[in-house]
Design a protein that fits this description.
It contains no helices and 15 strands.
Length: 229
């Protein structure tokens, strides 16, 4: 018959696990441009899909575990909802890699174009096992996908220059009979709001030459604005 000892109670403390995670773009681009006149996307995801995959690293106060081996990934179109109503499944627009074909396991391939007026945020919940406790850990990260709207009817050109030009009519820039005057044209776009472009402009500089006026006249008549050579 064995000898019984008294019972001892003890507590096990596990230091907190720090997690660093992100969504990596393997190919394609989360940003597209939609041409309203041609009705075309660039890049077109039906031809050049967007491929993304989560990456998670973990460490505690004593050990750096490095990149964790994932045991699963749950993908969502938009923030995860109750009962996984918006969870992504295999279909026409999406496929989830099984690790074959040189594509990392659990990578999401997106063949769905993003409407300019409806940006999408893709969420991935990466699942791995804590090597210290053998318990499941879930890490949620996301990446945004949006499309710029290209519409040439939304462009406007504005000239930036002083409204009054003071010069000596007897002193010319050269013998051609022109005064030199710099103007700054600004090409504006973004009249139709998109997630990341509104009221932006493309800025260029151009030198214009104003035809000489008659010195004796105080009225600007018969003026002509032509580009400088």
């Amino acid at each position: 018959m064995g000898i019984k000892s008294n019972k001892q109670q003890g507590r096990i403390y596990v230091s907190p696990l720090s997690i660093q995670g992100e969504i990596i773009v393997l190919s394609g681009s989360p940003v597209q441009t939609y041409d309203k006149q041609l009705r075309e996307y660039s890049p077109d995801r039906t031809l050049t899909p967007l491929v993304i995959v989560p990456k998670v690293s973990a460490f505690d106060e004593k050990t750096v575990f490095g990149e964790m081996e994932l045991t699963g990934v749950e993908w969502f179109e938009g923030a995860p909802r109750d009962k996984s109503a918006n969870r992504i499944v295999e279909g026409e627009y999406y496929s989830i890699s099984d690790g074959s074909g040189g594509v990392p396991k659990y990578a999401l391939t997106i063949r769905k174009n993003t409407p300019p007026e409806k940006p999408v945020e893709y969420f991935g919940i990466a699942i791995f096992t804590d090597p210290r406790t053998n318990r499941e850990v879930r890490c949620e990260r996301s990446v945004k996908s949006y499309a710029h709207l290209y519409d040439n009817k939304a462009y406007s050109l504005r000239l930036k220059a002083d409204s009054v030009m003071v010069t000596d009519p007897l002193r010319l820039a050269d013998r051609s009979g022109y005064w030199d005057r710099e103007i700054e044209p600004q090409l504006y776009t973004g009249m139709m709001n998109t997630p990341h472009t509104s009221g932006t402009f493309l800025k260029t500089e151009h030198t214009a030459r104003l035809r000489r006026m008659t010195p004796a006249s105080s009225v600007m008549t018969g003026t002509e604005c032509t580009p400088a050579s």
